[in-house]
Amino acid sequence: MKWKVCGMREPENIQEVAALGPDFMGFIWAPKSPRYVGQDFVIPALPEKTKAVGVFVNETTDNIIALSKNAGFSVVQLHGEEGQIEIEALQAAGLQVIKAISVGSVKDLDLSDKPNFYLFDTKKGAQVGGTGEHFDWSLLTQYKLDIPYILAGGLQSGDVEKVKDFPGLYALDFNSKLEIRPGFKDVEQVKELVKQL
Ligand SMILES: O=C(O)c1ccccc1N[C@@H]1O[C@H](COP(=O)(O)O)[C@@H](O)[C@H]1O
């Protein structure tokens, strides 16, 4: 099972978690997030296996492309109102696109965009991302598209066994439930996660 750890920020913590072999590592460029890395953040060297992901909420396409070159990510995760026009522009610039969808009902899975991956996260009022809560996973039985999806929303190691056989599931995303404080992961919890995976 592929896995992504998100909301990283501190150099030593990044290296310790990267050494445990995530397939994706996410860095959040959303100023309102407690995990915001800051405008000038540059992603440190990661193992070859680990793709760096820039996470955004309604950032302009031009800024994302410029940041991808300055900061060093090849995958972008979009949590705002971005649609197919932005997705295609980012793909044309050589980026892989993960489109995050806040899921609260089956209507949220009526999708027509063509990202490389969807990421299904928990809908919680106006909050986007980092809720630390699950959504009703039974809704995922209604997802019939052939675009693979990443599951997010309050995941922790004990959830792996419950979700790993969901059809269409590409990867699991771990964020706030593995934290000691925002932007700093508990390496022991990440090790336990790796055992479960
Ligand atoms: O974590 C944040 O602060 C955040 C802010 C803005 C956009 C995305 C954010 N995080 C993403 O949210 C999901 C779920 O996180 P959690 O496990 O519920 O804490 C994950 O993909 C994070 O990348």
UniProtKB/TrEMBL annotation:
Residues 4-195 form the N-(5'phosphoribosyl) anthranilate isomerase (PRAI) domain. It comes from the Bacteria. Pathway: Amino-acid biosynthesis; L-tryptophan biosynthesis; L-tryptophan from chorismate: step 3/5. It holds the Pfam family PRAI. Keywords: Amino-acid biosynthesis, Aromatic amino acid biosynthesis, Isomerase, Tryptophan biosynthesis. GO terms for biological process: L-tryptophan biosynthetic process. Gene3D superfamilies: Aldolase class I. Belongs to the TrpF family. This is N-(5'-phosphoribosyl)anthranilate isomerase. It comes from Aquirufa antheringensis.
